[in-house]
Amino acid sequence: METYIEANRAANGHHAGTSFACEDVTKQDFGTERYDHVFSNWLFMYLDDAETAKVFARIFDSLKPGGTFFMRESCFRQSGNKKRSFNPTKYRSDELYESLIEAASRGGFTIEQRAASETYIQIKNNENQLMWLFRKNLDATNAAAAAPPAPTSLTPAASLVDTSRVYVKNDEYGGAGCFASVDMAEGVEVERGIVRVLTNCDGNENPYVFTWSDELPNTTWALGSGCSTFYNTTEEGSANTHMIRDFANKSFSIVATRDLKAHDELLHVYKSKKWRTCFKVLNEGEAGQKA
């Protein structure tokens, strides 16, 4: 990587105000209202949700009011057909990316453009290379600073656990489900909590524990606080929440991926739904419905 940095410096270092660096983007300080434009290409697909939300927030803070942010990512599935023994890429949906950036900017970004790469469509027949252009609202800085952490919460902001906007009741399937207790806009934090990493537990047999790593096969399992274990799952595209997992700090945040009404059931796609043995019956059920 340093070779590329040096080549870039040699070619473009004569431009005023230009600097070059190879750093960990999750630890980099972008400053406040420094830039007119931020460009990102194939970055967030290699970060977990917690890291992505953190960098989105820093990019938002670093832009001047009216500044723009361009990003391109591989979404939904792998772009090529090369077989890999290890693939660290997170193929998120466009809906999830937009929910994460909505939450990180506190509604301070406007989507000016959203499009699929014409090159990938023509050459690879792949519509999943998505590009966005976001613009920071002119009054976004003051609005974000003045906005409360989330509506209707009665829990102190310092609390590691907040379940004030959700409740659990019997669901239509004969079990229990999690429901919104108030109206919530897309991007709002629905619930936050912490986990206990478990030992002597196999999540392939126990459906009530969370997958607590990005490794495959996964061997790390955790038990979540609050109402987190009562969220039912659904198909891709039908979920109305998403869990952001911070593996290092053993915590999570569940955010709304669309506007919610009080008493809506809260659903998210289980991270390990496609491969955990205990979820086999869920996948078979969905396959039967589609057939």
Descriptive report:
The chain folds into 2 domains: 2-146, Rossmann fold (3-Layer(aba) Sandwich), CATH 3.40.50.150; 166-290, Beta-clip-like, CATH 2.170.270. Residues 287-291 have low confidence and may be disordered. The longest helix is centred in the first third of the chain and has 14 residues, at 49-62. Helix content is 21%, strand content 25%. It has a 5-stranded antiparallel sheet with strand order 8-9-7-11-10. The protein has a 4-stranded mixed sheet with strand order 1-2-4-3. A two-stranded antiparallel ribbon has the order 5-6. Strand 1, helix 2 (49-62) and strand 2 form a beta-alpha-beta unit. The N and C termini lie far apart (48 Å). The chain has 6 helices and 11 strands. The chain is an alpha+beta fold. Helix 2 (49-62) crosses helix 3.
Give the secondary structure arrangement, pairings included.
Elements: H1 2-12, E1 35-41, H2 49-62, E2 63-74, H3 94-104, E3 109-116, H4 118-124, E4 129-136, H5 140-146, E5 166-170, E6 176-180, E7 189-197, E8 210-211, E9 221-224, E10 241-246, E11 251-256, H6 280-290
Parallel strand pairs: 1-2
Antiparallel strand pairs: 2-4, 3-4, 5-6, 7-9, 7-11, 8-9, 10-11
What's the short story on this structure?
The chain has helices at residues 2-12, 49-62, 94-104, 118-124, 140-146, 280-290; strands at residues 35-41, 63-74, 109-116, 129-136, 166-170, 176-180, 189-197, 210-211, 221-224, 241-246, 251-256. It is α+β, with helices and mostly antiparallel strands and 291 residues long.
